[in-house]
Amino acid sequence: MLPDKDGVCGGGCQGTFGEDPSVSLFREYLRLKTVHPEPDYDAALRFLDRIAEELGLPIKKIEVCPGRVVSVMTWEGTNPSLKTILLNSHTDVVPVYQEHWQHDAFSAVKDTEGNIYGRGTQDMKSVTIQYIQAIRTLKAAGKKLLRTVHLMFVPDEEVGGHKGMETFVKLPEFQELNIGFALDEGLANPTEAFTVFYGERNPWWITIHCPGSPGHGSRFVENTAAEKMRSIINSFLDFREKEKQRLNTSECFTLGDVTTVNMTMVKGGVAYNVIPAEMDVSFDMRIPPTVNLTEFEEQIKKWCNEAGEGITYQFAQKHMNQNLTSTDESDPWWNTFSTTCKAMNVTLKKEIFPAATDSRFIRAVGIPAIGFSPMNQTPILLHDHNEYVNEQVFLRGIQVYEKLVLALANVPALPCDA
Ligand SMILES: CSCC[C@H](NC=O)C(=O)O
Ligand SMILES: [Zn+2]
Ligand SMILES: [Zn+2]
Questions:
Q1: pLDDT computed for residue 13 by the predictor
Q2: Rounded distance, CA 215 to CA 229, Å?
Q3: pTM score > 0.90 for this model?
Q4: From the alpha carbon of 356, which atom of ligand 1 is closest?
């Protein structure tokens, strides 16, 4: 059967004619609907089983929570007692507004320029397949690695990682992997450079509960929930404005260097003419690792006290760990990473990740982790409509990982290995 105009083979086969097999495999993986709110994780698990068999690697499955399985493929090194290298990726993707997409978000359409469209093309199914294909190439070339490499495939990153990495890092099965250094996701970069992330802002999700006096909607009732909520909103959004301005005060600043605050939900009220007895307002805050978190929470308490009586708050996310991964040239992991990139003419831009990834749980247990999705010359479209990556950019990323894995897994024994 011939491919249709989108280059998708309609006859049930996975590849397209004349296409690089890595691209075909990527497109096949993009078609699995591991999309929230009900990701088809079974499809991903079956896919990974097949890959493990193709690569000739053992695969372990750890059910960290009911229906939430972490898979780990392991390529043993020649010295398995040394600290290992982790290549981490999540299998889930965020939902789409299909009506805003040029192509079906789960068909993996490739246009005439080689742009592949689909949810997960950037976040982060590309990286998953790049890891797999890099390992496949290295194995086929008969390479031997000193250190063991683990490929880890984790569920539920997009919904906070509670039933994924957050739980898994605390299990003995994670400790047994004996990880010394981890790679995880980053962001695309629209320029010739590649961005790498050595830390993340701390996500704090807060709901502020404002109780107040109820009454008839025709009266000047004192002490209303709405007046308190207005004060809260003003405090948070005034601070937001200041941080927004601060971002522009230095050319060196990126989103990762300032605190963002966004009002994301409001709740309250039962009728037009009934003054509500309570109102809730929620904010998504992202706090750079340089901010003193105790002082920041004191500021929030102050805003609540100033807003009136009886105000309480609750966190839905309150990540407290502020570990950073060393990017000092004397650090053997970073040095290997950066010199390998340099040798490939891959220019790196070091930043703090503006959102949250599973790296925060890895760093929190003391393991250095670098966020890196090798996509340059690509607009940042994760979670956006028409997410895509170009096949040439994708293919170059595989070569980048081949070199990185080879170099990192051959870092000679270190003091931390003892
Ligand atoms: C804070 S838990 C949610 C994690 C999510 N990660 C990717 O987008 C994020 O909102 O950053
Ligand atoms: Zn992601
Ligand atoms: Zn995401």
A1: 42
A2: 17
A3: yes
A4: 11
